Amino acid sequence: MTINLLQDKGIALSKQRMSWKDMVGKPISKLDDDAFTRVRIILMNGQELDSLRTKQVAIRMNRDARVQLAQLMRVEQHQATTINWLIGADHSPIETTIGYEQTAIEVTASVAQLEPDEYLAQGYRYALLEDFDHLYRYSALLDRLEGKDANNIVQGYTDIVPARATSEHHRAPEHDVLQPYGPEAALATKLHALTLTGGEYQTHDYYMNIGPVFADPLARQLYAEIASVESQHIVHYGSMLNPEESVLEKLLLSEAAEVWNYAGCAEQETNPRIKAIWERFLDYELGHFQVALQLFKDIERRDPESVLGNGKLPPFIQFESQRQFVRETIARETGLRKNGTDYVDEADEGRSSLDYRAAVNADGSPSTTVSSTYSWAPGTELTRAQVKAA
Amino acid sequence: MEPTITGPNRTGAAINPEGIASMLEAVNELSPPMPISTLNMDVERQRYIAEAESVGSIPPPQSVLKSTVARIKGVTAAAAMGILLDKLGERLAFERAGTRLYSALITKYLALSNADSAPLPPDARSEPAIDTLTRIRMQELEHFQMLSKCIETLGGDPTAQTPCADVTGTASIGLLQVVTDPRTTFAQSLNAVLTAELTDNAGWELLTELATLAGQSELAESFSEALAVEEEHLEIVKGWLRTLVTTSPGTPAV
Fold first, then answer.
1. Shortest Cα distance, chain B CAs vs residue A344, angstroms
2. What is the pLDDT of residue A10?
């Protein structure tokens, strides 16, 4: 099935209706479903929430488009609910967190390889090593707090080892910003940046919501620390986006990103019930895209091809273990740091980041404390703990 | 509604040996095993514990029955009254939540029965299981209401959430999550209810002892009667669970 944004119409917005029962269907099985089904669910929930976010901003800034935006938002809200409610209640918040970090790692690694702009590809690899390290720190917490093995979630697809240490992720804000892509950037470049920005928002918001749910002070500290890094990642990826794009241009790209991601999920989904959801929502998004397209033409009076090229969708994110690519990236780039919008060697890191880091780590580093001496082992580290004779 | 059977569980290391081998290779390279120490975590946690404030306070009784609590040896009158009211509040909250827990269990049982899969035979008294469940639920409700009156008698406010009530509520969240999940079987739900009943039995024992120490012989007697009822609940739940897992594996109830 080859989709073209400028030709395929999908289901008309007026025909998109869901009941509460439609939205609250059967969750996936934490035990039996493939980890990449959960990865796609987390990814698409993030995309839906970001699509809502884009429209929430747009409705404040465009008098003529307000009704259409409100109509689109209603359906996006219900799509987001349908997807997010697929996560079963037997996922503890840390287990869901492991799923979030696995999603960040595998999706970012795939995007880094698809990205045609080398500077931005470097940006994906840079933050990839940070989310990769978060998986290790959270796995230590899951093991040491709940006595659970993070591999029950990652299912052997994703390594659980440190990369650039989380304690080193804390940068001064001026060193989080990147150079944005320009108006002539490939459609793939635009969709990649938007997808990752949405993903990081979702992760940040999730950590901010569940952090206070924990009783354990170390868990509260770790979520506080990593939520802050995810906030930096929102800036990191968000600053890739061309700030000169108009609001309706951003709306058009947001809808295109949803179409692209749903099409990729539908093509690769292994659970037939979930695949049917991706296919249905792909048709919904094509319908949304038509509304955005019309607004763009009517209000901005611009040619959509100037934003979308010929409307052909770029290659999809590959939902499979990116282990080899991640390993190579760890070996090559763990030592990289930021100075302004540049990637530099450790010695050349922006001075203000060192000061900022010293301040936030002044009373200790939660991620370091939680994972001290931690090595992932099948069945948790307790499988290799010494049992002392009484 | 499905039985719990052998299937494509993907969580273990054995399902993906190549992936696990790669993970261990990465571990040996990037975080090689060393003696495990959680000392830094433990020290930080101890710091928080030392600095922590309490969950909250016990609501003061509207009228203190000094003659009652003064009899408790070695404990100040106010503290003794406080702990009695706190533990009464805990049992009240537990019995009230227990009523809801049994409602959820009854819903699950009825769903099974409606699907022509009656999971439990009548007991020795020929009481159908649904009647037993309904009776237990009613007894939980009776205990909740009895405790409300006891707290009022002692000058307390039965509508207040005491610290122990709050903490036991936190501890019970998982039980409710298990029983209300449509995917869990009746036996899995019973297992959660068994945890509740074991805790409840110990709770009534302690409350009876506290009332006796406080010289509240009438209260102690009521609590002792409640304990006898809860002991029966425990035996019933244990018995049902044993019956299901030993005689009916592979059925939707298990």
1. 23
2. 96
Q: How far apart are CA A221 and CA A366, in angstroms?
A: 6
Interface of B with A in 33-62 (CB under 8 A): 33-41, 44-45, 48
CB A224 within 8 A of CB A216: no
**Which residues 324-353 of A have a C-beta within 8 angstroms of B?**
327, 330
Is the predicted pLDDT of residue B63 greater than 90, yes or no?
no
Q: Where are the alpha helices (DSSP H) in chain B?
A: 17-30, 39-51, 66-69, 77-114, 129-153, 163-180, 186-213, 217-247
Would you call A218 and B31 a contact, using CB atoms and an 8 Å cutoff? no
Taking CB atoms and an 8 Å cutoff, what residues of chain B touch A216? 45
Q: How many CB atoms within 10 Å of residue A62?
A: 18
Q: Tell me how far apart the alpha carbons of residues B2 and B187 are, in angstroms, rounded to a whole number.
A: 12
The helix or strand, by DSSP H or E, that contains position A367, with its residue range, turns out to be: helix A366-371
Candidates B2, B5, B6, B27, partner chain A, best to mutate (most A CBs within 10 A): B27
State the nearest Cα–Cα gap between A198 and chain B, in angstroms: 28
- The distance of A364 to chain B (nearest Cα, Å) reads 9
Residue given tokens 């079963």 in the structure block: A88
**Partner-chain contact B30 A370, CB within 8 Å:** no
Q: What is the pLDDT of residue B234?
A: 98
Q: Which residue do the tokens 């007697």 mark?
A: B221
Q: How many CA atoms lie within 13 A of A95 on its CB side?
A: 19
Residue of chain A whose alpha carbon sits nearest to that of B27: A161
Give the span between the Cα atoms of A258 and A263, in whole angstroms.
8
CA distance B172 to chain A (A): 15
Q: Give pLDDT tens digits for A95-115.
A: 999 999 999 999 999 999 999
Q: How far is B85 from chain A (nearest CA, A)?
A: 25
CB A250 within 8 A of CB A18: no
Distance CA B57, CA B77 (A): 17
Query: pLDDT tens across A328-386, in order?
Result: 999 999 999 999 999 999 999 999 999 999 999 999 999 999 999 999 999 999 999 88
* Tens digit of each residue's pLDDT (9 = 90 or more) over A140-163: 999 999 999 999 999 999 999 999
Residue A337's DSSP bridge partners are: A344
Report residue A4: phi and psi, to 5°.
Answer: -125, 125
Cα separation, B87 vs A362, in Å, equals: 42
The model's pTM is: 0.96
Q: What is the ipTM of this complex?
A: 0.94
Is residue B72 very low, low, confident or very high in pLDDT (cuts 50, 70, 90)?
low
Q: Which residue of A has its CA nearest to B6?
A: A32
Domains of chain B: 60-247 (1.20.1260.10)
Helix and strand counts by DSSP (H, E) for chain A: 14, 2
Model pLDDT, residue A94: 98
Residue A156 contacts B where some CB pair is shorter than 8 Å: yes
Are B230 and B239 in contact by the 8 Å Cβ rule? The answer is: no
pLDDT at A390 over 80: no
Cβ partners under 8 Å of residue A237, min gap 6: A123, A127, A193, A196, A197, A200
Cβ–Cβ contact A320 with B under 8 A = no
Considering only CB atoms, B41 lies closest to which of A144, A151, A377, namely A144
Q: Which residues of A touch B45 (CB under 8 A)?
A: 216-218
